[in-house]
Specification:
Six copies of one chain form a homohexamer.
Chain A (H helix, E strand, L loop, with lengths): L13 E15 L5 E9 L2 E7 L1 H6 L9 E11 L2 E11 H6 L9 H4 L7 H15 L4 H11 L1 H6 L13 H17 L7 H10 L4 H4 E2 L5 E2 L1 H5 L2 H15 L5 H13 L15 H25 L37
Parallel strand pairs in A: 3-5
Antiparallel strand pairs in A: 1-2, 1-4, 2-3, 4-5, 6-7
Helix pairs in contact in A: 4-5, 4-7, 5-8, 7-8, 7-13, 8-12, 8-13, 11-12, 12-13
């Protein structure tokens, strides 16, 4: 049975397909019998599910976060949100052991991920660095990209607020770096190498701050030290390893990393004190906020010209007005 | 005698040239005799001057703000700042009446002004609008540019903080508009016409907020109403005059004007609630801050790697590090 | 059956009367059957209701926001709040079609509205303007009142926080204007015409910011432009239409409208820079806050000397202490 | 020689009259000789003065803060401010000892003071309390007024910001109390006795916070405890002395005193939690701000439509626009 | 049956023991029958309970806040929190009347209380004051401790945030006073008597701010006046009663009480202006925050290295890392 | 001639002794002749000096920041501050070259420095670490102290605000560490090794942030990276060099360094999330603030019970009240 994206499900439909378990908890109903509440996910979003006690007796699981599961059930509405009332559930692993047909099982469909082709993003980012950054910063940037490529390809850009998915960091970095290149045409007296290196490396510490890209969570170093100083150290160590020849230039790059949150209140230990650092701060912040708006607009299903209130942006967004048709340079993959 | 720019004067030098009077005040010395303190300006900056009582007796003036004057004097240092001890002073008008040789008198040299060719900036801005904005916003933008061209060519972008000089508004708008065009290559799903129209018109109200471009000061409507609502009204009236056909589109453009300061604390009556408004806010703010940094770095004459504290940016700036040579697309005019 | 006010209902009582539907949503129960949750309202408040699946089968509706409905049911308590378990429900329209007796149906009882007689408030406001404001501001104020009378008679003063009901804007304006008149006896050197015109017109833009007075919601211009600038434009256009003879006086009135939120953080694009503007700001803010307190004290049903925490005022209020008996000048209408 | 008010002095005039010494300091000139800098005051303001070494040799003083002095001198301008170059100076005490003619000496002219007749203000305040406050609060208020009448008649309302002069507290209290009476006509369901008692007593602690009404300074208890708690204690002790019969009513009055700064940031240990407390807070704050504006407008001598920046109000004020002629109920005394 | 601490209960266990009723509410189920929701407490925490209609019919109560009850039931889980499904419930009073065996009933086990022996804490606090504070402050402190001993022994330190239990004020004061003594060894030039008296008396007003130590709630004076000024008055009155001989010293102690919240935003009417006041502020705040952290760490039952978000501290806490074994000087009593 | 401390100089005295040049600038007087303004310093403070043109002709210098100079002159007062009118000045180097008697020249007297014996502070700090910190943190702390001993012995604790002098970092660290040891007796369940290591190492990065201990200035890394991350890296590198065996323990120590400013606004990239980190933050902040108060009280020379306003603490301080005599454990060296 073909996979229906969670974002496309409607009240009253039946589902018979695979999901990723994002959360699971056993509770007790009024009569004292256990039932199961789940959060199921695919690449398009998440959805609650209930396995009432009678079904649970037949499908005892266990079901843990990160498990792939096959599910039959009914989509209903509860307090204004959709959820699945489960009629049958089993783990892919168990189904495989029983020799069931898993030809429709495609893990790629089940992970929240960037809509772009990650290989292509990586390629473009690499070429941007190789083409537009001069030595000695070029080898520093390429060295770090090489060293952390594996993590960079999967890491989200944030746990919750923007690009919180597989490849999110890559997508965000690619976007900020391309914007930096464009901005340099307007501000040609800025130090282009610094701006581009800063744009590419500003969030590098995220690969140590966040773990488990399928269901992002902060690491202990991430919470106790933060990605800003972790990323700074990564740059500093790479420079040491490369015997970086220009300490003044390096210092300015380090300053961009440390100051890229723009204000102390947002966790930068120093304010941007160069124009290059100021530019990277604005481009990073702008890309994150535009993405938050995008995500909020896309998740909105209500009526009216305005979305619900966005807690971080502290406003509702305007949905009205039609967009002219555009041809994005790199189009997101089609979804089916 | 060739004009020496104020920014190039040094202690101990003699001057014999023209200035613009930016401030003037008569005081009384300890023995009860009057003397004159002046602030003199040219396109590169301002400088204090003293006309002691003996000189004042021979050169009684009067000298008022806005007068052009011919001055002979000596550059000295007082409390760490240069000033001119005047040996002779007279107004250009009086000199002309006396038939003096004024061939070296060039008012253009005496006004603080954008370093760019204003005709060229205007041409580029106009072409950007004509080429990249589609109807119906194209005619709205071109209509407003036409209607306010005279003011737009001379108005500063702010009284004090950034681009506070002849043509400052034009330079700032040109910069923001070109940046917007560049940003749209990175965010192609934004409404390009709205972004470009917003970028060009966001500060239009400045032409009513500020008067006297040679020595900018706020008008009464500027202080009691502010440029944000004044500019909004200008857009709204032009649209009415043009019978603008798309009220929803117009509303979104108006929203960009009103929200372009980004937060209520900075005087926008509404927060940006569209991605287009958010982008214009960031590009405007970024250009202003980069210019403030530029101005502060250029006005710094001290030693050490850092400038003095900048009161608005609330930080000192880093001066160290050499810049690579660049070829700006539109180069500022040469200064001699 | 006589209407029982929602604010007077108690657990265990039966109801058999009319309501206004303020919200409606269909959900699915555990067994997959649909049921209906409603919010019902009358002039005294709102209340939740449940139409379980068996009742819903007999009374299928549909029921939409804004419908008048006849209801039979039982008042019960759920999570500490009262709600109605519905035994029968039908729309007034359907009942009418069936020829049922609707003599007890009185829409006035079902709308949240000012407790005052709106005609009388309007009369008093008009007389205040006519008597106490001198030309040329008198004709400007009366012109605007005339032009927007219809909207002014019904508009709420705010969507949620204070006077959020039919005639709320009128009640608030009447109160602020009368207070302004009283304040002028203490500050006789203020410009009385400006203070009174400002007090009457300060919130005029609300008639464009808010729609649907029976269940107030913000319009798109309301959210994207805000009532402050909308009201300012209304004043400016009326003045143009009247060929208002004193531009300086007009500028000061416009300044009162734009600055009447008192601080930038609260959405005024400029700070009050005249004493008249300062006074109007204080009287507006005070009236809104006193009303919020009133509303919170009246909605409180708990025990103890203090109300629950008020989210906007950020405090609980003191309920203790008896009030001396007073004779209000204009008494709210009786409620039966 | 008739007294010329400091606020009326102009550059170039001669003075020959009496002043109050508000500050005095001996300095050394470049040649090592001592000279004297003074701040001289009268009821209209203050002014700097210099007694150069040659004059000082003949008029050695000493001159201390609080001394009355006779002065001959010349009004000149220094750094944009007027000052007196003294030709002769002696203390009134010394002049008296020498039998000089002191018929023009009138201490009342030399103290900064309320422009109103303090006896009349006191009379009106007393009558307001006696007429409009009911028992038991009436006797509490009258008891406190009686007990602190002497201090109340002279105390300023603040050291610097508003009403910083002889009788300032009385003028401010009289104004707030009259406004409270006027406001009660608009909000008749408030507890009138509480509002009026709160309005009259809210700043009572000022008589202990500030000393030396001619040149106000904070006392040690004023700085370490503050007028809010000092005033609260005064009310509480008076109530105890009177065996005040209604503890709940008293508690509400005490709450008004403690919360009258409206927010914690401004020094109230509790937020206003009753409508009566809220009203007194607004009326107090409004009167102080209106007075600050008044003072700033009156002290402004510059050109243009706007005053200089007011550091506390954080804005310049609009001076433009003519005021219609008014007849204040209680006119300030004429000044000559 | 031995008492099982609430903090040790697990899903699926049976309980048969005594509790304190902390909250009680009757609701109606879908079929219209009443059921009871309770919050039950013991010294280790609180827990929800449900008495469904069938059980309620047999055990009709009534059950009010503050009642001791005997309960039989089953521990289940609801929305991730444990609760008791009650099978039998009756009040201790009723059980006593029926002659039931109450030998296991121990009220001490049922009150949330400091884990320390309150007599011992009191003894240590008293000795600290007696040994280390010199006259005349010694008798002031001992006088106040004597006068308010009864309240001091039971009062919590706060209603919710830290030490919100029987004896909490005593435990907090004991801790701050001992820390103050330790700090004086590092800052020996501070006035030791002032520091110690301030540390012991800083929160004295809590005994008037909070009532009902078993289930703390704010009094009307507590909410309308606050513990800071109430405590200040208590010190002032004791000093008057003792004819305290050194008014300057007393003023400094009063200042410590009033300024001990450190900033105006947190309710102190004055900022600390002496080093002694600054030290007491830091030690008080530190002890409260450390206790909040303690309480949050101990109440955390989740997995992972970090606790849930703490609303007041605005962060999650790190749980990882083992603590070395320590021997506290005064060990909390054992819990079984 | 014996050295008179700057802090003891009085108007009218003669000086004949040595100073350190802290600032120097040549200016031009009205007649166009150069004169010299200096800031001279010794261990007790700084003082302005003027070398007028006639003296400068005889003593041409040059005099640069950091030079020791012998000076004869006269102490006078200018705008309320003392300054020296120089009659003779020469550098110690030149005097030495001329064979002058320099027996009174003692550089130790000329540097602003901690009043304590630095060797003794170091000894006590070392012993505290050696005695009270267990492995493995002991060797980490001692390793870092050893590695940075030279810098630690001279570095100030801050450029301006507290301990801004030779040995200031050592004095501050010694104070915080001793306080930490004392606090642990009150909070015995904290991890003592972490607290002590954190207390000793929290400001270690200052040795890289600040240069030139005799006249502290920020380094470029200090301004672009900040001492917090610099210190963190130093700890991390030492741990790597030592092959530190307990990564979880190390992480907690690193967290203390990074979070020790307590809030993001004050430059910590993370909030304290352990009780150990919270304690170190409070003890550091308290010591800095107490020292600021100390410094301000000692520098105050005015009359009255209160100091002038302290710009950082945002308050004036209370000077009144006598201190009881105390015997500090480690007394500051005597000053003559």
């Amino acid at each position: 049975m073909a996979h229906q994206l969670i974002s496309h499900l409607k009240e009253g439909e039946s589902v018979h397909q695979f999901f990723l378990v994002r959360a699971a908890e056993t509770r007790t109903d009024k009569s004292g019998k256990p039932f199961l509440t789940l959060v199921l996910g695919d690449k398009s979003g998440t959805l609650g599910a209930r396995v009432w006690s009678d079904v649970l007796a037949k499908c005892p699981g266990p079901f843990a976060v990160g498990d792939y599961v096959g599910v039959q059930g009914q989509v209903s509405s509860y307090k204004g949100e959709l959820q699945i009332t489960v009629q049958y559930i089993n783990s892919v692993e168990a189904l495989k052991a029983r020799g069931r047909d898993l030809k429709d099982f495609d893990p790629e469909l089940l992970h929240l991920a960037t809509p772009y082709d990650r290989q292509q993003l990586w390629q473009e980012l690499w070429e941007l660095a190789e083409t537009h950054i001069n030595p000695p910063l070029r080898s520093l940037v390429l060295g770090l990209l090489t060293r952390y490529q594996a993590e960079f390809m999967v890491s989200p850009a944030a746990r919750l607020y923007h690009h919180p998915y597989l490849g999110g960091l890559l997508e965000h970095t690619w976007s900020v770096a391309r914007h930096a290149l464009a901005s340099l045409t307007v501000y040609p007296d800025l130090h282009a190498d610094l701006v581009l290196a800063g744009a590419i490396l500003h969030d590098l510490g995220k690969v140590k701050e966040l773990a488990n890209p399928h269901a992002p969570e902060a690491t202990a170093p991430g919470q106790l030290l933060g990605h800003i100083v972790l990323g700074w150290e990564m740059v500093r160590e790479e420079a040491r390893a490369l015997n970086f020849p220009d300490p003044t230039l390096l210092l300015q790059l380090e300053h961009i990393i440390l100051s890229h949150h723009g204000t102390l209140e947002f966790g930068s230990p120093v304010l941007p004190k160069t124009r290059e650092a100021l530019l990277v701060y604005y481009l990073d912040d702008l890309d994150a906020k535009l993405k938050m708006m995008d995500q909020h607009l896309q998740s909105d299903t209500g009526e009216g010209d305005f979305t619900s209130y966005h807690r971080v942006l502290q406003r509702g967004l305007y949905k009205g007005g039609e967009r002219p048709q555009t041809e994005p340079e790199t189009s997101p993959e089609s979804e089916d």
